[in-house]
Design a protein that fits this description.
With 192 residues, this protein is an alpha+beta fold. It has one domain: Lipocalin, CATH 2.40.128. It has 3 helices and 9 strands. A 9-stranded antiparallel β-sheet has the order 4-3-2-1-9-8-7-6-5. The protein is globular, with a radius of gyration of 17 Å. 24% of the residues are buried. Keywords: Signal.
Length: 192
């Protein structure tokens, strides 16, 4: 294996640990925007050149991937946070359409429960982005949506995603916030 690939794997393959997260910490966007955080009209519009760049990156990633998914979920209260960790095998298929420019469709094999579940990670979606940084082999995005959290309430759900890929390896770290406060992290390490 070339030295570049080994260095890449060493940089991004560290385990997701409870010490790396601070349950219920305010997101960087929430800290910066304060009350404006809840204004979903402040998203960015992608320029045609950015759309083309995302589409080019998506073409490189399209297809089937396999690997692992490590997850951390925070629950409890601010005063007494608790953390749940899990690590499972996963298969992923990268797709796109005219609105969702980069989506990772997951099939998670829960080894503890002996069951499978399907899930989606929306990486780049038009109309929901608040930040997007693109470079060769890297995507960083921040998206916010209003989502139901019960019969009568809506909550702001924010995802801050960093995706890096090199040749046949992809690493994704996604931090999830509810109402501007950290609630979960998912880390995917995938290979073709």
């Amino acid at each position: 294996m070339p030295a570049v690939i080994i260095l890449f794997l060493l940089m991004f393959s560290h385990a997701v640990s409870a010490q790396e997260v601070d349950c219920f910490e305010a997101s960087p966007a929430f800290k910066q925007l304060n009350d404006d955080y809840y204004d979903l009209s402040q998203g960015i519009e992608l320029l045609p050149s950015e759309v083309k760049q995302v589409q080019t990156l998506t073409k490189k990633l399209k297809g089937k991937w396999q690997g692992s998914l490590e997850e951390i979920y925070c629950y409890g209260s601010d005063q007494s946070p608790r953390i749940k960790n899990s690590k499972n095998k996963v298969e992923a298929i990268i797709t796109s359409d005219s609105k969702d420019l980069l989506v990772i469709n997951l099939e998670v094999f829960d080894q503890g429960k002996g069951s499978n579940k399907k899930d989606k990670l929306y990486i780049v979606t038009k109309g929901q982005l608040y930040q997007l940084q693109l470079s060769e082999g890297n995507i960083e995005s921040n998206r916010k949506v209003k989502a139901s959290s019960g019969m009568f309430s809506k909550r702001i759900r924010e995802s801050v995603i960093s995706l890096s890929f090199k040749q046949r390896t992809m690493i994704l770290v996604a931090d999830f916030y509810s109402q501007g406060h950290f609630e979960a992290r998912r880390k995917l390490v995938l290979k073709r």
